[in-house]
Amino acid sequence: MTDLCEHLFPACREQAEFSDEARIDWLRRDRWISLPQAEAALGRLEDLLTYPQRGRMPCLLLFGSTGMGKSEILNRFGELHTAQYDKRAGLTTMPVVVVQMPPQPTEEEFYTELLLAMNYAEFNLMPLRTLRSLARRTLAEFGTKVLVLDEIDKMLAGSPRQQRIFLNTIRFLTNDLRIPIVCAGTEDARIAVLTDPNLADRFAAVELTPWRNDHALRQLLASFAGLLPLRSPSDLDTSAVRQRVLSLTAGVTGRIFRLMETIAIAAIRSGREMIDADSFDEDDLLLPLVSMQVIAGTQRAMRRRAA
Ligand SMILES: Nc1ncnc2c1ncn2[C@@H]1O[C@H](COP(=O)(O)OP(=O)(O)O)[C@@H](O)[C@H]1O
Ligand SMILES: [Mg+2]
Fold this sequence. Notes:
Blueprint: H1 10-13, H2 20-28, H3 36-49, E1 59-63, H4 70-80, E2 84-86, E3 91-93, E4 96-100, H5 107-117, H6 128-141, E5 146-150, H7 160-177, E6 181-185, H8 187-194, H9 197-200, E7 203-207, H10 215-227, H11 239-249, H12 253-270, H13 290-306
Parallel strand pairs: 1-6, 1-7, 4-5, 5-6
Antiparallel strand pairs: 2-3
Helix pairs in contact: 2-12, 3-4, 5-6, 11-12
């Protein structure tokens, strides 16, 4: 079988020999895939890690629509710099701390999430002042070099006063700890952060833009062709495929991944074992996202009307 799968990357050929169920299971698992925008964003994050400590630390705002891969990038960054225990010194270091913004954007909830992200669990019913100083002390003791706050648009759920307090908290942390802070969120979050005059001039913004019909998309589809454990060569490098993918997903990374996963699973189940432009048209294809179903349904109706 292996020699039949020359269309796949060498590391993926063995995968194609597995049973249908094993291949489907593999397809459903999360794995990091190197994407141009994601790698560029990671590079910016890495830069912050080695930034010398000075009066005003630069900060980074990573923004883009839901599903563009922000959390994937931040978690990847966290995984590349996980906590280390130095046995001789008896010290744990945690160079990168990634915190999810709590649904209730209060300072108490925020510091609680921050302490949880640092595996601190014994802080029930502490007053805010204690929580705040404990969080600061723990960050300093862990030698944290970059603090990452994901989903900061949650702060917009708060009252204007809560939002102000939260933006002050970010400013306070970066001033006090002298470490860069990375915030990730949607366009709304970008506006909220950058309308704060104290934060606007220290946050550089990096945007994740939707995929377009260009070279990068061709490369992405070529990676899928080499990666998906199908036994026959797929035909993804066509303008028809690119247009179908973009119209079904609006170029949102997460939707493209779900779409390709669904279509690959259908190709395994049907025994077709390859993907081409026709694969995107099958009527019984259960598209993974409701939004995609709506788009596909409208397009099918339009094609039927045109026929
Ligand atoms: N670099 C990547 N490698 C693998 N999968 C990715 C990558 N970027 C995005 N994805 C897929 O897209 C989905 C949405 O990404 P996510 O990071 O949650 O988006 P966001 O945080 O911007 O809303 C993920 O669940 C994952 O399946
Ligand atoms: Mg996210």
